[in-house]
Design a protein that fits this description.
Elements: E1 12-13, E2 17-21, H1 27-33, H2 50-66, E3 69-76, E4 82-89, E5 102-106, E6 111-119, H3 127-143, E7 148-154, H4 158-167, E8 170-180, E9 186-195, H5 199-218
Parallel strand pairs: 6-7
Antiparallel strand pairs: 1-2, 2-3, 3-4, 4-6, 5-6, 7-9, 8-9
Helix pairs in contact: 1-2, 3-5
Length: 220
């Protein structure tokens, strides 16, 4: 059976943040938000320079055109400032239109991967970061009707691994020598997922975390 899931360009709006389709017009904002080298330590790319970020944006838009990724930018609602990016990614040929990256995108099997996610370090552990995760997962499960969302990260990246578990995702295993990093290191990747039956609990958890961040930030 083939399942026809169409992933169209869309703006996902929350109180604190919105995810909007990536375009070349976002390059200056992404360059400013991604200038910290520590953002890229665990990724097989480097957006800490204007040239590096231009290459990332061009590659994302090319992947979008090819139908393998759907890239988004993360925008702070209060200021309109670009603070990061994320994508839905594809594992197989997919019907994809738009600009946000959904990775491991396999709509016929009702799954996708959310990856290449990064955010300005100033926005980590804030309402903006929590709401961005809530919006991306909510769209995948509640609007697109998917059954599985995947995440992966460098096995050595303890902060990212803890963050993915903090969302409520389940650890599934290690892909050994999965990627080649800058400098030639063989990266092992840790895989995680959230499935549709877990989503109500994950959503409630993220909503609670968002409420706490909102309360803490409002009292400052």
């Amino acid at each position: 059976m083939t399942t026809d899931v169409r992933i169209e360009p869309v703006i996902l709006q929350g109180r604190h943040v919105r995810l909007e389709p990536l375009s070349r017009a976002h390059l200056a904002g992404l360059t400013a938000a991604g200038r910290e080298p520590r953002i890229w330590r665990w990724m097989p790319l480097d957006g800490s320079t204007p040239e590096g970020m231009a290459g990332i944006v061009d590659a994302a838009l090319a992947a979008q055109t090819a139908g393998s990724e759907v890239p988004f930018v993360t925008v702070e609602q209060a200021t309109g400032r670009v603070v990061g990016s994320t994508r839905y990614l594809a594992l197989a040929p997919a019907q994809v239109v738009g600009s946000t990256r959904y990775l491991a995108l396999a709509p016929a099997h009702l799954r996708l991967e959310i990856g290449w996610t990064w955010i300005d370090p100033e926005m980590q552990r804030t309402a903006v970061n929590s709401e961005a995760k809530l919006l991306g997962l909510g769209h995948a499960f509640e609007t697109l009707g998917l059954r599985r969302v995947e995440f992966k990260t460098d096995v050595l990246n303890e902060q990212s691994r803890a963050g993915i578990l903090g969302i409520g995702a389940q650890f599934e295993g290690i892909f050994r020598k999965h990627m080649v990093m800058t400098g030639g290191r063989a990266r092992d990747s840790a895989y995680y997922s959230v499935i549709d039956t877990e989503w109500p609990d994950v959503r409630a958890h993220l909503q609670g975390r968002l409420a706490r961040h909102t309360s803490e930030e409002g009292s400052r």
